[in-house]
Amino acid sequence: MIKIGEAERELLKEASKALGNAHVLWGFSVGAAVLAEDGKIYGGCNVESWVSGLGICAERNAIHHAILHGNKRIKEIAVVSEAKNKSEIKPCGACLQYISDFAESPEIKIVMAKAEKARVLFETVKVKTLKELFPEPFKK
Ligand code: THU
Q1: 52 to each of 20, 81, 88, 111, how far by Cα in Å?
Q2: CA 40, CA 68: separation in Å to the nearest integer?
Q3: Which of ligand 1's atoms lies nearest the C-alpha of 91?
Q4: What's the CA-to-centroid distance between 88 and ligand 1, angstroms?
Q5: pLDDT tens digits, residue range 17-41?
Q6: Are 34 and 42 in contact (CB under 8 A)?
Q7: Hey, which residues does 77 pair with through a beta bridge?
């Protein structure tokens, strides 16, 4: 297990709280939490629609939550998921672009873990930098 600090544990716990509110119709529950420039943590869950493409991922909702409170930069993000397949416990490409749009640097940590019934399974935690997961974001 990768050693994580108190900041990461706190983010993961907030992400799993958010996961408890996920609106899931056909997929699985996801929760995210961002540490914003104001030093506060903002959560978000995925929201699905019967019309595919209308729903939104947990990460982008967490970022919107931070923006709503006046933040334009994020310092770290955690994502937890009830996905059965390990490869799905990470931000999707669209969310990686979004994280990159608002990240204070390409070095910010992305903390990922599996959750069950909104409880973080700490033995599954993985930590990567944004740059590692998304080395070439789109930018004008
Ligand atoms: N999902 C997220 O919330 N974040 C991601 O990065 C990837 C996928 C959601 C979308 C959909 O509601 C469910 O997880 C996958 O079926």
Answers
A1: 22, 19, 18, 27
A2: 13
A3: 6
A4: 8
A5: 999 999 999 999 999 999 999 999 9
A6: yes
A7: 34, 110
Interval 2-22: pLDDT, tens? 578 999 999 999 999 999 999
Residue of minimum CA distance from atom 6 in ligand 1: 91
Cα gap 54→49, rounded to integer Å = 6
Beta carbons within 10 angstroms of residue 37's beta carbon: 15
Index of the ligand 1 atom closest to the CA of residue 95:
6
What element of type H or E holds 7?
helix 6-19
Compute, in angstroms, the gap from residue 45 CA to the centroid of ligand 1.
9
Query: For the domain bounded by 6-133, which CATH number is listed?
Result: 3.40.140.10
